[in-house]
Each structure stands twice: as C-alpha cells, then as structure tokens.
Design brief:
Blueprint (H helix, E strand, L loop, with lengths): L1 H8 L5 E4 L7 H4 L9 H12 L3 E4 L5 H10 L10 H5 L32 E4 L2 E4 L7
Parallel strand pairs: 1-2
Antiparallel strand pairs: 3-4
C-alpha cells in the first residue's frame, strides 16, 4: 500500500490487487485486535480510495493475470507481503522467479532491503542493540 500511495502522489494511476477480501495483509490477519484496531485499516482504505487508488480485492494474481497486467501497464510492483517469508523462516525468503523482459527487468526486493545498524544483532527478526561493555 505504501508503494501504491507514493506512486499515486506522483500522478500514477494505481490499482492494488489482493487475494484477501480485506486490505492490510498481516496487519489484518496477524496482529490481534487489542493491539491494532482494524477500523484503522478500513479508514486507511477509504483515504486511499478518496485519493484515487483503486482496490481489486479477493483476486489472486496468477500467471494469466500477471501477464495481462504486464501487457497493459508500464510497470507492475509485486508486494507479496511477509507471509511468504514467514512460511520460509528456516531458509529465508523464497525468491519469486519471474521471467524478465529485456525492457522490464525484475529485481528481487531482498537485494534492496539490507539494513545496516551499528552495534546491533538480529534476534528472531527483531533488531536488538548491544549495550557498550562499560554499561554491563
């Protein structure tokens, strides 16, 4: 949704497809209601629609739909969410292998998501900052 919002602000026509009937991905299904009021996601959808973003919910983008989208649009962003990474936690995120077109290369997002934090280690997906040895 963030990518769609930024593209929309830049004047690009945006349609967000989601296989779920509700927006939000893991925010909708993985975060309990007592931690995140789901009305916020409904409000977010309303605001995005008012800004001109269209939603195609309940549609699983298969190979045929993806091919059509690639033919009909200048660019397609595939944001597959965190559920793919969660299902492949032991081996890391599974790459999505798509046939590249010479004019439209398909980069993998993982190559762009390197986070560098000094004095930090990763612990079960969270960044934990180490205390300096003098503070121990």
């Amino acid at each position: 949704m963030s990518c769609g919002e930024r593209l929309n602000r830049a004047g690009t026509a945006v349609t967000i497809y989601d296989r779920s009937s509700r927006i939000g991905g893991l925010l909708q299904t993985g975060v309990p209601s007592f931690k995140l009021d789901k009305a916020l996601l409904t409000r977010r959808k309303t605001l995005l629609e008012q800004a001109g973003i269209r939603f195609a919910l309940g549609i699983s983008v298969d190979e045929a739909i993806l091919s059509r989208l690639l033919e009909e649009n200048d660019a397609v962003f595939l944001g597959l969410g965190g559920s793919i990474c969660a299902r492949h936690a032991k081996t890391g995120c599974r790459p999505v292998l798509l046939q590249s077109h010479s004019r439209n290369p398909v980069p993998q997002a993982q190559d762009c998501c390197t986070v560098t934090v000094p004095s930090a280690t990763t612990c079960r997906g969270r960044i934990a900052t180490r205390r300096p040895s003098s503070a121990r």
